[in-house]
Amino acid sequence: MMQEELKALEVEALQKIKEVTDERSLQDIRVHYLGKKGALTAILRGMGKLSKEERPVVGEVANSVRENVTAALDAKKTKLEKAALEAQLSKETIDVTLPGRPVAESGPHILTQIIEEIEDLFIGMGYEIKEGPEVETDYFNFEALNLPKNHPARDMQDTFYITNELLLRTHTSPMQARAMQHSDKSQPVKMICPGKVYRRDTDDATHSHQFTQIEGLYVDRNVTMGDLKGTLDRFSKAMFGQDREIRLRPSFFPFTEPSVEMDISCKSCHGKGCSVCKHTGWIEILGAGMMHPNVLEMAGYDPKEFTGFAFGMGPDRIAMLKYGVNDIRHFYTNDIRFLTQFHHG
Ligand code: FA5
Known about the structure:
Blueprint: H1 2-19, H2 23-34, H3 39-44, H4 54-92, H5 110-123, E1 128-129, E2 135-137, H6 138-141, E3 166-168, H7 174-182, E4 189-198, E5 210-220, H8 225-240, E6 246-253, E7 256-265, E8 282-291, H9 293-298, E9 307-313, H10 315-323, H11 336-339
Parallel strand pairs: 1-4
Antiparallel strand pairs: 2-3, 4-5, 5-9, 6-7, 7-8, 8-9
Bound molecules: adenosine-5'-[phenylalaninyl-phosphate].
């Protein structure tokens, strides 16, 4: 009788172990059949009532049931653990075929690109590149350029003063004076100086209170207005192509004599007139002229022996003309949709 009960218990336990799908239920089964208060123990408690001959026989069956159930439990436990590990691993697998997250692409600002293009052009003509301070002295920004204190022409450039003697440079021209002062006067000075400049201008489509300039200076014996014109012509053709018109207008700067301004025909309206060119068909991109004798003299050059020319151009306006940008403020408001148009791989 007991043997049959034990056999039935084994069959039932093995069936349950076979069906179970999680480790927790498996543990419950172990407790239910083999635990201290479990089914097997309950049956074995009745062993006392058996005869001497029956006891070892039943004992043997009971041991075999315990062993078989224990083995089945252990095997199932291993199987469930392995399955759990595999599930975990497959969940954590990295799918290398997924497309990557796009990395934001960057590139030089359009003004940097224009400045570098102009630098390359002038390096090709034998110019050096120099840099000067943005916080400048009144002396270099004005006085050394033939603009003594209270000179009315100082009003041409509305200035951000820091102290009476220090200011934010209003143009890159102070580098004319600095470059000449540093020269040992035995060699020609041939340099360009790009950089940021500041003016208390009211911002509009073509004016910004902070913009860029590139100064150019060539001092030597026998430098003529023809050299200046030839240089500007070469620059204009390289920058804008043969089809764009150029004009030189007589102008005034205290540090050059004679002085000119150079205009380029407007690309936005092809010379018809629009808000970019203030309905004139032309945009002014640079001021230039022959070095004023006073400026040469203040920097230690004898104006009877040396002559020179200088120019100051606005890369912002040049970029506007080259690419048909209709508002200078686009360069400074950092709208990524605007800036990325000028990134080329
Ligand atoms: C000057 O600044 C002179 N230093 C240029 C010069 C150098 C003349 C050497 C002679 C010899 P002007 O103020 O015109 O000149 O400015 C020169 C250029 O800077 C202009 O032609 C224009 O292209 C640009 N510019 C001037 N003001 C602004 C502004 N507010 N915003 C953007 N570009 C400007």
